[in-house]
Fold:
Amino acid sequence: MERRLTPRGKERRRQLLAFATQRFAEHGYHPTSVADIVSGLGVGKGVFYWYFESKEQLMLEVLREAQQSLRRAQQDAIGDEPDPVRRIELGIRASMAWFDRNRSLVNLFQFAASEERFAPAMRRGQEVALADTVRHVKEAVVEGRVRDSDPDLLSHAILGVTGQLARTFIHERNASVDEIADAAVAFCLDGLSGS
Amino acid sequence: MERRLTPRGKERRRQLLAFATQRFAEHGYHPTSVADIVSGLGVGKGVFYWYFESKEQLMLEVLREAQQSLRRAQQDAIGDEPDPVRRIELGIRASMAWFDRNRSLVNLFQFAASEERFAPAMRRGQEVALADTVRHVKEAVVEGRVRDSDPDLLSHAILGVTGQLARTFIHERNASVDEIADAAVAFCLDGLSGS
Amino acid sequence: MERRLTPRGKERRRQLLAFATQRFAEHGYHPTSVADIVSGLGVGKGVFYWYFESKEQLMLEVLREAQQSLRRAQQDAIGDEPDPVRRIELGIRASMAWFDRNRSLVNLFQFAASEERFAPAMRRGQEVALADTVRHVKEAVVEGRVRDSDPDLLSHAILGVTGQLARTFIHERNASVDEIADAAVAFCLDGLSGS
Amino acid sequence: MERRLTPRGKERRRQLLAFATQRFAEHGYHPTSVADIVSGLGVGKGVFYWYFESKEQLMLEVLREAQQSLRRAQQDAIGDEPDPVRRIELGIRASMAWFDRNRSLVNLFQFAASEERFAPAMRRGQEVALADTVRHVKEAVVEGRVRDSDPDLLSHAILGVTGQLARTFIHERNASVDEIADAAVAFCLDGLSGS
DNA sequence: GATGAATGAGTCTTCATTCAT
DNA sequence: CATGAATGAAGACTCATTCAT
Structure:
């Protein structure tokens, strides 16, 4: 593999990746056959295997791209904000917005995390994204803005809240992102008790 | 379908359900074939279709049973505790303990939630379990122990924290349940800020 | 695998094996598809995989059976003949007759010997058959009836003569078996020089 | 086809032929794809079909070249030796040496002989090489040095011994060529009986 | 001359489901 | 009730060959 591609080739590859991403996200990995993908693009079956080693490899690439995109969205939102707590908040809001824009990918992430073949890749991706949060949390602890508890645990808790609310209220109920994001932020900062 | 079963028949059915649950949980739904299930029990393929309409129906039943079991564990733990906040805490701890005892089912839940065919069933099950929490939250709000925010959102947030920590730290890292439960409870009650 | 088969099942298996043997022998391994085999028997594709693990395993079984059959023919012909030189002769004649009766298998043997996946099996089978010849040769050497040379080499030479004459004159030119067998025996016993 | 090639074109063609020969010999005809061949040479797929009509034609050419090379080796070794028996011996030794130098081609020959598409070509090639031996044998018969039997049969027997010993002891066991050649010569001249 | 791209029929294999016994 | 047998659509993947550029 590792082909040198002409511009036209690169374009085809992008097409395939994009189309497959959409299909995987909307119909699921298993229900989407390679035949679906190529016929959806109106090309021969061989084209797929010219650009990708296997359906599995393609999926891995889809996941990688999506995770990168999510992370970039978070980083873009955070910018160089100096306040670590504010950075956490911005991260949550950015994630929620991304989830909103990429609703169907949430499902795909969930599936991937549950399947032996893709779980490791998901884990790796999450660890990267998590490391950012951990950094903010640690700084906030130093500043005395957050109680001194295992930053890994705290970060995962944040992630859990964000993910669950996104899944439930955005993906499934079509709610307004901002409200949900507000709720997530509030819960993460103050829990049930409120300030 | 809806057969009247002899005691021996009921036993057979239970066996199939139990074995399938284990297989689905450990290897996944797709990788577990009906042939695996019946040959694992040393019976013919006809047996399966005598007791279950299809693989899909079986899965649905597996999911229903598991969700019931989780819910029962929560209710048993809560008993008739009068303090609503304490009830929330007991619920979290009971869930965490159940996740610990049924590690592999967590994966199955995640898969089921991501697959069109099973997502509705998962949703329904979760709604039932969530209704309990919502009740506790509402009471706590009335008592002024929890800030007055959408109880549905709050409950989902709790669920998100619990689920994420369970998945990450129990299922994947083999951590001690109690510590994780403590962390989940603390986060849910006080968020990042601490009391 | 390793199924317990009903009489009907055993019959089917035999059918498949026999039909596949014929096809492989007449058309070759690669040109014969699993689809050819099952459709030739008028059964569904699944039937094949009910009885055999893979096309490759089937081929291995075909080869094993054929080699066994050849060896049995040799042993039957030799019986308990006391004279070792006569035993060699009987072996050659029996082989030649078998090659005649199973012309197309000769080709299959040749193919199998040339293909990495089947060569080891062929080698093992040949070693078994060769051991017999080696025994006769050794005895004949002891009796002074054959010159004292490496029995392994001598045995292979015998095999080479027999095989080549069979391939050329029986398989390809449809010659009379007995004449060819006479020639092979004469050459093996006396070489070019004659007595 | 039948292109007029520039010197550079001829060189390309030779390269392709040489590389394909090596691949076919080492990995087999079927397992070697056209893509393997061209990518092994770092050229595009079009190149292949510029110089060769098809994979099959290429194989045919590979076989022809190899058979020619073998025959040339035999003729070179024989030179103008007047003694026909000696010529036979020299032919055997030359063949054995060639088989040693081109071990992997032996397999390819065997495969080709077993495949309908290539068998005729193999046969034709062998007939040519055999005609030489037949000539020597006939002369030897006239001189009374070899018993008066069908020269065709005798020649094939010689070829059978040589081929089998080469395949077994050189190709598979890495034995010394000279010893094997000695054994082949001795067997051909005197059979089992010895002089 | 040469390249990368595209084709599509064909390969082996899997598996939920049905059925005769 | 239960079994082993059978079905056949569907799946992922391969590869010789052709073609536009």
Remarks:
- Residues 6, 8-9, 12, 43-47, 50 of chain B lie near DNA strand F (CB under 10 Å from a C1').
- Chain B has nine helices and no strands.
- Chains B and D do not touch (no CB pair under 8 Å).
- The mean pLDDT of chain B is 91.
